[in-house]
């Protein structure tokens, strides 16, 4: 199974970015853990981070060529703004799980709406880095 983990804007700053909200793990720590879990299950897990909306759209398109089975995506702030990322995910028709480190529902109201959630297989919010692991376990079981 091929899993693709997509990280949106500012997630490259994890570890130092508002650690009381996002935790102290770096993106490299999170990706390494996911790769280890996937390897234990004889699956592959590629990770991609970009601060650019278009680069994320392009990576989603490439996922179809690469026969990615499942996408796990934390689109960061683009979650709340990006029709383009929504359309890309719909366009490639690869099942995906939406993850947010923080509980977006107990934060500012502009974080309560997601352009992705109604297309997602599932949504994990507020569980920190464990949310990605839960999403990966689900993807590998389905
Ligand atoms: C986030 C929540 C978003 O509202 C925010 O813009 C982020 C991170 C999270 O993981 O909690 O960049 O997606």
Automatic annotation (TrEMBL):
SUPFAM superfamilies xrefs: Type II 3-dehydroquinate dehydratase (SSF52304)
Pathway(s) annotated for this protein in UniProt: Metabolic intermediate biosynthesis; chorismate biosynthesis; chorismate from D-erythrose 4-phosphate and phosphoenolpyruvate: step 3/7
The keyword Amino-acid biosynthesis appears for this protein: yes
Binding positions (substrate): 74, 80, 87, 101-102, 111
Marked site: Transition state stabilizer: 17
Pfam families referenced in this protein's UniProt entry, alphabetically: DHquinase_II (PF01220)
EC number: 4.2.1.10
GO molecular function, one term: 3-dehydroquinate dehydratase activity
Protein purpose: Catalyzes a trans-dehydration via an enolate intermediate.
Name the record gives this protein: 3-dehydroquinate dehydratase
Species assigned in the record: Eoetvoesiella caeni
